[in-house]
Design goal:
The chain is mainly alpha-helical. Helices cover 37% and strands 0% of the residues. The longest helix is centred in the first third of the chain and has 27 residues, at 14-40. The chain starts with 13 loop residues before the first helix and ends in a 24-residue tail after the last helix.
Length: 90
């Protein structure tokens, strides 16, 4: 949640309770996925809502860093910030 300025929130309101319920569901799902990874090295299927975007169905490289398969220093997966702005050789 992003905080920009003080706001009064009715903690008993149905909207707030619904938001908190959804957040708890997301946290439990993330914990379940993490437990399956650590227990069985099971990678969850791609999120169908995100398919066809810039990365398509490819695994996120930062997920591979999280699982220890790739290091942040791997130049084949990640570039230095300066490399992005270097002019191509003529």
């Amino acid at each position: 949640m992003f905080w920009q300025f003080p706001v009064s929130i009715d903690l008993d309101s149905p909207l707030h309770c619904g938001v908190m319920h959804n957040m708890v569901q997301h946290v439990r799902e993330m914990q379940r996925v993490e437990e399956r990874w650590h227990g069985f090295r099971d990678v969850p299927p791609p999120n169908d809502k995100l398919n066809g975007g810039y990365g398509g169905n490819a695994l996120d490289p930062y997920f591979l860093v999280l699982t220890g398969e790739v290091m942040l220093s791997d130049d084949s997966m990640f570039k230095n910030r300066e490399d992005m702005y270097n002019a191509a050789p003529e």
